[in-house]
């Protein structure tokens, strides 16, 4: 027999193998869409099936907000942690069996801390059981056109049947912002104050990207480091989804590049098709993204190939002279003058706890503005006794005016005034080291 047919057969077999394995080995998946029109600004493997990890919780909160809007639930309702909810692995709030919290506290725990136990508490409240709630999640996904998605739990913990895609998660995020704009601020909060503990949001894009004002992080060994982010510039909102980064820092850096690219393209009118037109008829399973490093053991347990220990970093090219670079240049070129420092006061209270509550309300009302300046409680004394004042210091005059407009719109007291010179040194001097609260990745 001639060797030529054997060679051709071997080459054909190799080609078939490569064609079959290429989609499952996608380096990453990403999409950026215009939130108002749904048109695609950029996408890479956006219909590739992927493990969503804690991005699942966006759907959990979507159904929770839907229940609020339809009167089936109230923010002040008390919910209780079952044994199943309390047994969830980190990230978690640390609820004990039978422990109670309000619906609003559970929402905040999910959106800021990605708390698995709080997500299950909400799921059991709405669905009776987490499995029933997962069925509701999948049904809602079909209603929204998320044809790549199916859910088995409310948290995103590893499960072979817990699947989504960048396209589907962008659709979900756009629906959440469109359907529940009055509740979107829960995804913008930079911290969560629970039982005297102030816990920072795990989503660092809120601080690293100037125009970002939400949404959610996610991580498992199967998914890699995932991120949904929404940013608004000059009244124009974009939603970006990035799946499969190999580190937390990589997902935030590359999301910044995605959003920069998105704003640059949208300003030029470079839009693609509507997101609903993106189609994928592949039935291949999601890649196990971190099978090549410290997660190799988990990969083998799920039947994935552990592969090699090498991987290439994601490189998304941001447009030259991006907005972040411009802001950095402006900050370096125009240092703040002392005379421009302003303080915003939000009333005085006879009890410190009242000032603390008011300060938290202000944080929630301000959203991303809360990242500007320095918030605090000041103790004052007068003939009438001791009082506690909630305030923000270290602001520019324009910022202080924006603060008061936002707070007054929420029927909160606010007054802005130039900061006294004797307090400027304290406001501009290096702050004391802050004790970091350790927390698990999400």
Automatic annotation (TrEMBL):
Q: Name a GO molecular-function annotation.
A: carboxypeptidase activity
* Highest rank taxon of the organism: Bacteria
Membrane-crossing ranges are none
Leader peptide range in chain numbering: 1-26
Q: Where is the composition biased (Polar residues)?
A: 416-426
**Where do Basic residues bias regions lie?**
433-442
Q: Name one Pfam family in it.
A: Peptidase_S11
Write down the SUPFAM superfamilies for this protein, in alphabetical order. Answer: beta-lactamase/transpeptidase-like
Which family is this protein grouped under?
A: Belongs to the peptidase S11 family.
**Protein name from the UniProt record:** D-alanyl-D-alanine carboxypeptidase (Penicillin-binding protein 5/6)
């Amino acid at each position: 027999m001639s060797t030529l047919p054997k060679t051709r057969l071997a080459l054909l077999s190799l080609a078939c193998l490569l064609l079959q394995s290429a989609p499952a080995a996608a380096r990453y998946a990403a999409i950026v869409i215009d939130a108002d029109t749904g048109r695609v600004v950029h996408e890479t493997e956006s219909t590739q099936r992927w493990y969503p990890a804690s991005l699942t919780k966006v759907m959990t909160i979507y159904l929770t907000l839907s229940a609020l809007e339809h009167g089936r639930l109230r923010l002040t309702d008390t919910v209780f942690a079952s044994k199943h909810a309390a047994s969830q692995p980190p990230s978690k709030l640390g609820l004990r069996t039978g422990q109670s919290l309000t619906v609003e506290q559970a929402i905040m725990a999910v959106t800021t801390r990605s708390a698995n136990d709080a997500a299950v508490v909400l799921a059991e409240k709405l669905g009776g059981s987490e499995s029933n709630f997962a069925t509701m999640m999948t049904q809602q996904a079909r209603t929204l056109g998320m044809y790549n998605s199916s859910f088995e739990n409310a948290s995103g913990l590893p499960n072979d049947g817990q699947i989504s895609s960048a396209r589907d998660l962008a659709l979900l995020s756009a629906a959440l912002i469109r359907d529940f704009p009055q509740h979107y601020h829960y995804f913008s909060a930079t911290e969560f104050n629970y039982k005297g503990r102030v816990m920072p949001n795990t989503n660092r894009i809120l601080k690293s990207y100037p125009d970002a004002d939400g949404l959610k992080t996610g991580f498992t060994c199967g998914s890699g480091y995932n991120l949904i982010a929404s940013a608004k510039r000059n009244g124009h909102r974009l939603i970006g989804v990035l799946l499969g980064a190999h580190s937390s820092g990589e997902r935030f850096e590359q999301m910044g590049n995605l959003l920069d690219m998105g704003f640059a393209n949208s300003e030029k009118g470079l839009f693609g098709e509507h997101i609903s037109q993106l189609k994928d008829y592949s039935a291949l399973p999601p890649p196990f993204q971190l099978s090549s490093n410290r997660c190799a053991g988990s990969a083998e347990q799920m039947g994935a190939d552990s592969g090699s220990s090498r991987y290439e970093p994601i490189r998304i090219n941001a447009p030259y002279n991006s907005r972040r670079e411009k802001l950095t240049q402006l900050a370096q070129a125009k240092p703040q003058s002392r005379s421009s420092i302003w303080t915003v006061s939000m009333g005085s209270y006879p009890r410190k706890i009242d000032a603390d509550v008011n300060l938290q309300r202000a944080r929630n009302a301000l959203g991303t503005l809360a990242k500007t300046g320095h918030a605090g409680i000041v103790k004052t004394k007068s003939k009438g006794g001791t009082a506690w004042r909630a305030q923000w210091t270290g602001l520019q005059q324009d910022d202080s005016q924006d603060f008061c407009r936002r707070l007054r719109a929420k029927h909160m007291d606010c007054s802005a005034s130039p900061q006294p010179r004797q307090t400027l040194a304290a406001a501009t001097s290096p702050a004391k080291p802050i004790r970091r609260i350790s927390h698990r990745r999400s």
